[in-house]
Structures are given as C-alpha cells and as structure tokens.
Specification:
This protein is mostly beta strands. The protein contains no helices and 8 strands. The model has no long low-confidence stretch (mean pLDDT 94).
C-alpha cells in the first residue's frame, strides 16, 4: 500500500510503501533503495547522486496515535517532509 509519493523535482521522486505484514519499502525514482520489516517503524537511509553530488536521504517511518502511519523525510539532514 502506497503511504506517500513525493515529487521533489522533475527528476526526483520518493515513494514510501507499507504492507499489512510490516514490510516497508522506499523507492527513489521507482528503484527500491531500502526495504525493512517492522511493526512499529524503521529508519531508512540511502545516498543518491544528484547533479554530480552525493545526497544523503533518511526516511523515518513510524506509528502515530490511532495507528496512523507517520513519515519524515530528510535530505542532507534538512527536513523535506513531516507527516
């Protein structure tokens, strides 16, 4: 189940999926860059090259009250999204 799709630019798309069995998948431009199994959430870190420079991403998936999935995305330690 897709939790969120974030278009950061015309060339960068990050997708976060979560299954009922707890499998979390993070995709960068359609390619799986991190996959972990968790019931309470995990931290997914990966590096991609953008404009010839390495960029560090961190995607934090968690559970908020009432069982809602929360997602926080950081790019080079700066907040991109908090949900």
């Amino acid at each position: 189940m897709n939790v969120i799709t974030l278009h950061l630019s015309d060339t960068v798309k990050i997708e976060v999926d979560n299954s009922f069995s707890g499998l979390e998948t993070v995709k960068y431009n359609g390619e799986i860059v991190s996959e972990k199994k968790s019931l309470l959430g995990e931290v997914h870190s990966f590096t991609q090259e953008e404009n010839g420079e390495p960029v560090q991403y961190e995607v934090r998936i968690g559970i908020k009250n009432l069982g809602r999935i929360s997602v926080a995305i950081y790019r080079n330690n700066k907040v991109i999204l908090l949900s």
